[in-house]
């Protein structure tokens, strides 16, 4: 008898194990991951909460992480370490090509990626397509970078379904950045081969897609499901990693995918040296080093879950 047989395919069924889910307990915001572990942030208050047509939004205040945004009770970013995530998602692809001009961001309503992309002088247009306008409006009120970024003349904000948008803009973008939530519920579509094939289609010759792809340690089961989907649509797919302390396990991964460019084919060291002056995390050495992957991450990229033994044991304990 295979006790895990009843567990549906995580990505296709949209039922991921484990899922992150947060709640407030006294002074603590607690995010529980698949009933296996918890991340806790001491909060000093809740600044905002609302339900948009798409999701629940909340903004908390904390002394140590600053303000943070949650969507459907999952931490999207904290002021303390959002720069790590956004810099890595944006500067790695942009510094990997000579003159990036047109950039597309799918998701990213908080304008963190937008802010970073606008740092590149060759960039003429950044289109941000988030389905939920309320994310941008709420972030505009609580986070200082949003106003300047969305008012930049090179920024174009579209509030619509990213999947539909990429279906209609073939060959228009040098870089496409997927700044999504976790692969649960409505976001699952942003992790499937159909979507990636459409993204590949929006890229210009030599174009690059980057995407957030969960934790290589705690989310290895997710990575092992995501990367084969990506490889179905792109010739070159690899991952790079970094440290985002407020995400589950703290170690995080992003995908680098292209049909005709590999990570180290080109690196604009001069531009990186300029950009890194305004960065919290990104620099030339990090750019190169981030592609060095531990063996368990290589395994996940190949579609295997290196921690399957623990995950299965936990599923048996919690799901039965
Ligand atoms: N995107 C969400 C990354 C996933 C975080 N997952 C989690 N905490 N379980 C962040 C959007 C920021 N622009």
Describe this structure in words.
The protein is an alpha/beta fold. The chain contains 12 helices and 13 strands. The strands form 2 sheets. A 7-stranded mixed beta sheet has the order 9-8-7-10-11-13-12. The protein has a 6-stranded antiparallel beta sheet with strand order 1-2-3-4-5-6. The chain is globular and about 50 Å long. The protein binds 1-{4-[(3-aminopropyl)amino]butyl}guanidine (AG3). 1-{4-[(3-aminopropyl)amino]butyl}guanidine binds next to strand 6.
Q: How many helices in DSSP terms?
A: 12
Average pLDDT for all residues: 92
Fraction of residues in H or I helices: 25-40%
Bound ligands = 1-{4-[(3-aminopropyl)amino]butyl}guanidine
Counting helices, strands and paired strands, the structural category is alpha/beta
Summarize the structure.
This protein is an alpha/beta fold and 320 residues long. It has twelve helices and 13 strands.
What tags apply to this protein structure?
320 residues; alpha/beta; binds 1-{4-[(3-aminopropyl)amino]butyl}guanidine
């Amino acid at each position: 008898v295979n006790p895990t047989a009843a567990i549906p395919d995580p990505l296709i069924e949209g039922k991921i194990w484990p899922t992150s889910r947060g709640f407030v307990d006294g002074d603590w915001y607690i995010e529980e991951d698949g009933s296996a572990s918890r991340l806790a942030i001491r909060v000093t208050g809740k600044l905002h909460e609302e339900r948009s047509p798409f999701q629940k939004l909340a903004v908390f205040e904390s002394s140590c992480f600053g303000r943070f945004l949650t969507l459907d009770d999952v931490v999207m970013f904290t002021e303390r370490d959002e720069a790590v995530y956004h810099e890595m998602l944006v500067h790695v692809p942009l510094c990997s090509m000579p003159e990036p001009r047109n950039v597309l961001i799918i998701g990213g309503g908080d304008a963190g990626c937008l802010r970073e992309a606008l740092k590149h002088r060759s960039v003429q247009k950044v289109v941000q397509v988030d389905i939920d306008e309320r994310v941008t409006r709420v972030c505009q009120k609580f986070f200082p970078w949003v106003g300047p970024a969305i008012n930049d003349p090179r920024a174009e904000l579209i509030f619509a379904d990213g999947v539909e948008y990429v279906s209609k803009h073939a060959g228009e973008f040098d870089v496409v950045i997927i700044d999504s939530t976790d692969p649960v519920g409505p976001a699952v579509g942003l992790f499937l081969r159909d979507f990636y094939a459409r993204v590949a289609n929006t890229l210009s010759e030599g174009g690059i897609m980057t995407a957030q792809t969960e934790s290589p340690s705690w989310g290895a089961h997710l990575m092992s499901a995501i990367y084969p989907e990506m490889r179905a649509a792109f010739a070159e797919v690899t991952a790079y990693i970094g440290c985002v302390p407020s995400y589950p396990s703290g170690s995080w991964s992003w995908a680098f995918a292209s049909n005709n460019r590999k990570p180290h084919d080109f690196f604009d060291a001069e531009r990186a040296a300029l950009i890194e002056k305004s960065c919290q995390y990104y620099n030339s050495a990090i750019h190169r080093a981030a592609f060095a992957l531990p063996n368990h991450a290589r395994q996940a990229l190949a579609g295997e879950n290196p921690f399957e033994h623990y995950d299965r044991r936990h599923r048996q304990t919690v799901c039965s």
